[in-house]
Amino acid sequence: MVGTSHPGNVGSAARAIKTMGFAELVLAAPQKENLTTHPEAIALASGAVDILEKAIITESLEQALAPITLSFALTARERDMGPPVVDIRQAAHEASHHLCLGHDTRTAIILGPERIGLDNNQISLCHRICHIPANPAYSSLNVAQALQLAAWELRYAYQLIQPAQIQETPTHYAPQEKVEALIQHWEQALIHIDFLNPAHPKKLMPRMRHWFNRSQLTQEETDMMRGVCTQILKK
């Protein structure tokens, strides 16, 4: 949950994920302090206080996504440019299979602030845009309600996974912090060879970011690309 300001939504979110068997709630850059200990949050958690007590609080979305290998930005608004778009059922299916590809894979559903939702910069940090097919004339969902729907879809999809589908030889996907480091390194290399003009960058780096995130890089591929950047910068 990014930029959260209402303790009631935090408590309701804790209850929503616990009912579906999940336990990790992350608050990225919350707008107020002590949201997890607020009386309203505790009341609406309704028995899920343990989720509130273990909630992770980070200063930014970037920090929250650092260990994540597949992330879904939940939004109702269409975007002119961004990651690939899936609906919540497709997202749940993809997330469930992703978790079977390696022991270090981690997925996340990202929700924005109550009033304005996720902005374009925040969405650009995610691998997929995800939406809930709702009434086109009134698609606004409370964040806790949206999280409840997402958690149910994830639980249902994961229960359908058969043991035989779990990959014996795991794929080591790069966590987002390593991909972000590659993107910064790549930008330096592009400037070095005059492919990118930092004074007039246009939309080159956002497009590059979407390309890298869409590609679902492994750790080996990320290290390889970092090596390419290092050689470029030496010339």
Automatic annotation (TrEMBL):
An MF annotation (GO) of this entry: RNA methyltransferase activity
Domain tRNA/rRNA methyltransferase SpoU type intervals: 2-151
Stated name of the protein: RNA methyltransferase
Xref: PANTHER family: TRNA (CYTIDINE_URIDINE-2'-O-)-METHYLTRANSFERASE TRMJ, TRNA/RRNA METHYLTRANSFERASE
Pfam families tied to this protein: SpoU_methylase (PF00588)
Gene3D superfamilies, A to Z: 1.10.8.590, 3.40.1280.10
Any GO BP: tRNA nucleoside ribose methylation
InterPro entries the UniProt entry points to: Alpha/beta_knot_MTases (IPR029028), RNA_MeTrfase_TrmJ/LasT (IPR004384), SpoU_MeTrfase (IPR001537), tRNA_m1G_MTases_N (IPR029026)
Organism: Pelistega suis
Methyltransferase as UniProt keyword: yes
Keyword tRNA-binding: no
Homology family: Belongs to the class IV-like SAM-binding methyltransferase superfamily. RNA methyltransferase TrmH family.
Entry's Gene Ontology cellular component terms: cytosol
Alphabetical UniProt keywords: Methyltransferase, S-adenosyl-L-methionine, Transferase
